[in-house]
């Protein structure tokens, strides 16, 4: 499943589902958590179940409520039989949380789809990031968040005045990035909250891809095209990567080679292979 862009849609706004699916997002995240108040959760479950029952072409994840909440069992009972493409688990705190969710889905009478944990929303969760390789087979990827954690520790903001992350949350972003790669799963950048700032979004996407993220969460259909474009290798990048792969294929015993006037070695080969895998 290609996951350059994952678009959040409130589960209690079914009139938005079709528009979201038409946005070219690689996947939708139909939300049962933060964007849906308690009084509307039952309606949201029914709306999501109806949508999944129609077998939409766009893969649909469902963000369920956190482990330990009374409403999670209702979420799973309503949507697990319809086999969403994945589940998004908020406030995840490592491999134990993934195992627990898999077991709860089984109790709801279904096989658990791939899980995308939001892995940094509580202070304790940060100390479990290294455990995700244990449950990599159950993961669709790993993502992080910059909203719940500041509230949990009493920080006034996660961002500087220029929009960049403050030092503590820049560290959190990096830890989530490395945790995803340690588990061998997609590293999904968190949302860019300013919907009207297209220029800022483009820069944010470019920075995410530069740093090693492979996709991104979105909160509005207008964000999808810049995200998809930014996380899609260009033809020039593909050609350059293929040239590196071809050079080492022609010289399998070489540890380093000269290609078009610059030295390349095995890390360049690994990087080229990763880019080609994303492209195809």
Description:
There is one protein chain. With 280 residues, the protein is of the alpha/beta class. The protein is 42% helix and 15% strand. The protein is built from eleven helices and ten strands. It has an eight-stranded parallel β-sheet with strand order 5-4-3-2-1-8-7-6. Strands 9-10 form a two-stranded antiparallel ribbon. The radius of gyration is 20 Å and the shape is globular. 41% of the residues are buried. The mean pLDDT is 94.
Strand order of the largest sheet: 5-4-3-2-1-8-7-6
Provide mean pLDDT, rounded: 94
Spatial separation of the terminal alpha carbons: 11 Å
The biggest sheet, with number of strands, parallel, antiparallel or mixed sense and barrel status, is: 8 strands, parallel
Any idea what the radius of gyration is?
20 Å
SS elements, strand count: 10
**Helix proportion of residues, in percent?**
40-55%
Looking at the structure, what is the overall shape? globular
- Put simply, the count of helices is 11
Q: Give the amount of beta strand, in percent.
A: 5-15%
In quaternary terms, these chains amount to single chain
Poorly predicted runs are none
Helix and strand composition category? alpha/beta
The succession of helices and strands, N to C, reads: EHEHEHEHEHEHHEHEHHEEH
């Amino acid at each position: 499943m290609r996951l350059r862009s994952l678009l959040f849609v409130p589960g209690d706004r079914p009139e938005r589902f079709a528009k979201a699916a038409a946005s070219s997002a690689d996947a939708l995240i139909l939300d049962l958590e933060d964007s849906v108040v308690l009084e509307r959760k039952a309606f949201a479950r029914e709306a999501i179940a109806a949508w999944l029952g129609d077998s939409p072409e766009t893969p649909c994840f469902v963000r369920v409520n956190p482990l330990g909440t009374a409403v999670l069992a209702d979420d799973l009972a309503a949507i697990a039989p319809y086999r969403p493409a994945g589940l998004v688990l908020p406030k995840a705190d490592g491999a134990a949380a993934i195992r627990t969710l898999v077991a709860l889905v089984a109790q709801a009478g279904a096989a658990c789809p791939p899980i995308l944990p939001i892995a940094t929303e509580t202070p304790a969760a940060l100390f479990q990031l290294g455990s995700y390789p244990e449950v990599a087979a159950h993961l669709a990827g790993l993502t992080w968040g910059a909203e719940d954690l500041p509230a949990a520790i009493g920080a006034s903001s996660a961002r500087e005045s220029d929009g960049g992350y403050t030092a503590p949350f820049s560290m959190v972003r990096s830890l989530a990035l490395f945790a995803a790669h340690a588990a061998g799963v997609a590293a999904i950048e968190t949302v860019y909250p300013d919907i009207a700032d297209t220029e800022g979004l483009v820069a944010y996407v470019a920075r995410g891809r530069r740093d090693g993220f492979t996709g991104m969460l979105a909160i509005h259909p207008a964000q999808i095209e810049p995200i998809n474009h930014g996380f899609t290798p260009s033809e020039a990048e593909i050609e350059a990567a293929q040239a590196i792969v071809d050079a080492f294929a022609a010289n399998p015993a070489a540890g380093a080679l000269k290609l078009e006037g610059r030295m390349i070695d095995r890390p360049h080969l690994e990087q080229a292979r990763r880019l080609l895998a994303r492209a195809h």
